[in-house]
Write a structure and sequence with these properties.
- It is a single chain.
- The strands form two sheets. Strands 3-2-1-4-5-6-7 form a seven-stranded parallel beta sheet, sandwiched between helices. It has a six-stranded parallel beta sheet with strand order 10-9-8-11-12-13, with helices on both faces.
- The chain has helices at 10-16, 53-58, 71-79, 121-126, 162-165, 171-178, 193-197, 211-220, 235-242, 255-258, 270-282, 284-301, 304-319; strands at 2-5, 22-26, 48-51, 63-66, 89-93, 116-118, 134-136, 152-158, 183-186, 204-207, 221-226, 247-249, 264-266.
- By secondary structure, the chain is an alpha/beta fold.
- It is globular.
Amino acid sequence: MNILVWHVHGSWLTTFVQGPHTYLVPVTEDRGPDGLGRAVTWDWPASVRERTPGQLRADDIDLMVLQRPRELALAQRWTGRRPGLDVPAVYVEHNSPDAAPERQLHPLAGQSAIPVAHVTHFNRLMWDNGRAPTEVVEHGIVDPGRQWTGTERRAAVVVNEPVRRGRTTGTDLLARFARRTPLDVFGMRTEGLAGHLGLPPDRVRTRDLPQRELHRAMARCRLYLHPVRWTSLGLSLLEAMFLGMPVVALDTTEVREAVPEGAGVVSNRLDVLEDAVQAFLADPGHARRTGDAARAAARARYGERRFLDDWERLIKEVTR
């Protein structure tokens, strides 16, 4: 099939495009948010093809995979076809509701032609989906292999724009952890974080790295810290588990489902999390055993093959 899909979330799309189809990814002259084109920091197969809006109008398209409300209008304007009416479509909801978590109406709630595919069961539960048919296709990860060494007595954190996003991503909690444990914080627009937290740069080192370099750098840290209060299940948490890292995480949204007993420490008690961090720093053997359990759990639930099989099932149902 020819599948139209925008480059929005690079990590998610990296696994999605491993399937057996041709993936038409919009590209614009400025390579802005609506036309990023092919990724430069992820390895994508040749089946991912950049298409300008003009080319899309002439392309055969068997399925539209939408991820943002504005893509409904974009798809119709650029292809001349209406999602869900002229061409089968699926809307992937990556996020948890943020305005009113228990009663926020989903943007597609008023229609029934386009199913909403949530990436977690928590998200489907919390959104008011209205008349929209819903599915859950949990995340899938292209296995980076076990890379953990834990040679650096530091905790890794992955978050984009931590200063802007603040309490949502637990940025305020980083100061508390960093006073006892040095942190390596990876992600976009992390510069100035140490100063924002009132800490010296060696306590909070920040870097924005391509995915391959990111995994290697993360894996040198003794553990992965996930202080996120409210967001969908972070792919960085799952990637850390695939790398063989022990994880310490807030017990929010879908985290408890992703991190079973023995694969890390999940709690909303900060003293419990701080003790867990110190225990992993003090005992590399304990960290290694926990990381091995985390990797096994992540591979069993969030493997690439399961993800692609789930999507093939959904694609067949939608295009039937």
